[in-house]
Amino acid sequence: MGAALIADLLARRGVMVDMVYDEGGSVGADGFPPYTTRPIALIGTAEKGYATINARVSATGGHSSLPPLDGSSAAAVAARLVLSIDRRPPQASLVEPVTSLLAALAPSVPGLRGWLFALAASGLGFPWVEMLVAEDLLGHDAPETAALVRNTAAITGLNLGFAENVLPPAATVRINFRLLPGSNVSALMDYLHRAAGRDLPHLTFEMDGGQNASLATPVTSATNPYFQMLKTALQEVYRLADGGGRVDVAPTLMAGGTDSKHYLPISRGGALRQTPVSLNRTAGDGRRVHGLNERVSVGDFGRAVCVMRRLLMLVGTLPAPAPAYAASS
Fold this sequence. Notes:
4-stranded mixed beta sheet, Alpha-Beta Plaits, 3 domains, Aminopeptidase, globular, 329 residues
């Protein structure tokens, strides 16, 4: 809670900042697979919300020598709920800033797919195009792209049973959600009721620990001068690093959370989330983040320092505060 306490102290002192920069998207050395291989730096202009809901199962219980024949045991109900969530995750949809990411990708994505990306990002209102693109982003067995177009539901806890010869009278399934901009707890509860199906009478749903959900952050505009300065710094440094080749820059939606959200109440311009180091997802670098063999190359460490140094130089040229938030979806 360090960041939250710092932000609260600054707010009580009346401190306002023009922009918040935090960790976030990386520089894709292999582009945005499987759509484009052109190097692209992603800047998180929003991050998904967070909610954990406990599904509590009520059952009759009894002796393990006489298990029920109708699938009404606490374990069976919990298992069906877990399987339903795993097989039928929340429905896909396109929201900002994912549509802005599609617009940035479209020129380098060949053929019909690139045209569909541009059309889906145009805001002209073609639901069938948006659904086609959303399904396409889901269809590559890539958790990173799937998380861009739907609320994610992950089973992070399962608790039942206290003795090997007793049928438990209750069970708890813990489900962690990450929410798209515009989504809320009501949508999550509706989804869980559908996932429960015929088992709904045996289930109750409640927020974990009585906590409230953290909704997705507002979307910071990519036309913000602070975004343009970060874009310039990234392109200058990485163009030099790779011998003059072009590095695209695009906004994206952060699937995970950062400390930046705590500072949003005191930020005039919102928050931008970028970690100026390169990842090659085709080579499996993405799985190393917070995982086994997490590392940063010596070269990338130096480039990250250069990006931040150049960014500070550019920010120092601004005479006035950045504009306020862009309208959130």
